[in-house]
Amino acid sequence: MHRFVPALVAAAALGSAAPALSAESSGPTHVVYGIVTQIGANSIVITRRDGSRVSIDIAPAQAAGTTGVLYPNRPIAISGEFDRAGRYHAEAIRSWYELRRGVWPADR
Q: What is the domain extent for residue 50?
């Protein structure tokens, strides 16, 4: 029986340009989980597990075609990087419905 590998499935679902959400990948090293609370033209705001709100620059993910459709109050996983000023720049965004079932991994 083959083991289900979520990171590989996520990369396949997002297309070849999308980085895998895996610590072993050469792509982004940070993955953030949250619920979408606001959607702007080039940014979103999410609420994280601890209740903090984070503004995320989604322009890089939009340029790569790895955002999917974003909806308010939906759970997502975002892979990307923080810049020196502490702003998060998303490289890939995908649904993460496990949050609704109580499976909320720690950000990394």
A: 6-20+28-101
